[in-house]
């Protein structure tokens, strides 16, 4: 069984001690405590912290991450199946929207690269028109 203090956990997860404490404060993490009050981080805590980091990279709100952690750790009963499915459907839609936005942005960036890399340097108006797509809801 792995047992680490907060400094070792911060190094292993590439998070600050303050961030780890904040995740505990908002209920995303519940490390065991030693008799002296120091936190003892177990392998489950490390896995949860890696999970939280990846969800944050996907711009998932902490409130949704809390639901996902409860599901992952099976702290929720399947009696609330409808609520769980509704949450998963919403989460899936958000991920699909992010995927679409990233794909569209990558396409625009590649188009700009193609224009700029032409021997004559490309048409500035074309580049500007492509950049302006990031201003509104065209994406």
TrEMBL record:
Tagged with keyword Transcription: yes
**Per UniProt, what is one GO molecular function of this protein?**
DNA-binding transcription factor activity
User: Which InterPro entries does the record associate with it?
Assistant: DNA-bd_dom_put_sf (IPR009061), MerR-type_HTH_dom (IPR000551), MerR_fam (IPR047057)
What's the source species' lineage? Bacteria, Bacillati, Bacillota, Bacilli, Lactobacillales
The record places domain HTH merR-type at: 1-71
Q: What is this protein called?
A: Transcriptional regulator
Q: Which PANTHER family match?
A: MERR-FAMILY TRANSCRIPTIONAL REGULATOR, REDOX-CYCLING DRUG-SENSING TRANSCRIPTIONAL ACTIVATOR SOXR
Keywords of this entry: DNA-binding, Repressor, Transcription, Transcription regulation
